[in-house]
Amino acid sequence: MLTPELLIAAYAQGIFPMAEDDGSIGWYEPTIRAIIPLDAFHAPRRLLRTVRSGRFEVRYDTAFEEVMRACATPGRGRETTWISEEMISAYVALHRLGYAHSVECWREGQLVGGLYGVALGGLFAGESMFHRERDASKVALVHLVERLRRGGFVLLDSQYIVGDHMRQFGAIEISRAEYHRRLRAALRVPARFSLET
User: pLDDT by residue (tens digit) across 183-192?
Assistant: First the structure.
């Protein structure tokens, strides 16, 4: 059974879960890990204009389960999901304990994009993102990085690079050994996600 305690122990060892097609939980530790260096994060100019325009209202931790369920919804190019009901229950419990967080983009009272992940020490493990309007998930990512920087985080884990989508933001791939070195250092950092906006 997936529990908050098991999730915390797994992330502290560089491991994360994904649901298999049969609903069982698989545990993953890629040999090549994707991260986004917080000091080298880069957002395209056009996206920064969208961020500054105020088109989206950005909130934190107000609709965690809704964000997670939106990330789990199959869509074009993603006919299946690796986010099961068991995972949703466990991560919602983790959220209630203050370890899992969401960044949400709202427009006219509707949730139109966002992301969620797990914060442990100075690590933020990005889990998934979704959008229902163009750029909504990317705006959430820009706001996430700003909050992580202000909160003293040192490691933003994005697990894998799928296509070139994340490379535009400065995502890089490192070895498992290098990830573990950075993870050990990050876990000693007393970072804070919950800051005033």
Answer: 999 999 999 9
